[in-house]
Amino acid sequence: MKIKKFSLFKRGKKWSAKTSKQGTVYTVSTGTSNKSDAWEIAPRKLALKIQADRARGCSVRSAVNHYLDYNQDSRPKTKQGVVGFVKNYLQTLGLDWETQASEAFCKRSAIEFQQR
Question: What is the 3-state secondary structure (H, E, C) of 9-29?
Fold first, then answer.
């Protein structure tokens, strides 16, 4: 991954870099006090941080919390029903709230849930 746009700023004596990718702001320290070295180091460190963040994924709990925080149009009973269904879904599959969302809501898991 190649970082094209980023900005450098100083924190104390060291230069740090910041970029935004899909609405998330990523910040890294370049570890150097030389600005020209920081311009060379920053894209590599930012790319590594973005890749690590994408690989980590998100848990079922964070996905449900995101739904509850940003869903303004549903009634409270509907939101409560969604949480109850997800809880039942996880219990049926033997998963917990900290399971990766990509693992819990994949095609294989859905088929397994339907067969039980």
Answer: EEECCEEEEEEEECCEEEEEE
pTM of the full predicted structure? 0.55
Both tokens assigned to 72: 């303004």
Chain segment 37-74, per-residue pLDDT in tens: 999 999 999 999 988 887 677 889 989 998 998 998 99
What are the percentages of helix, strand and coil residues in the chain, rounded to 5? 55, 20, 25
C-alpha span between 108 and 114 (Å, rounded): 10
> How far apart are alpha carbons 100 and 103 in whole angstroms?
5
pLDDT score, position 12: 94
- Name residue 101's amino acid: A
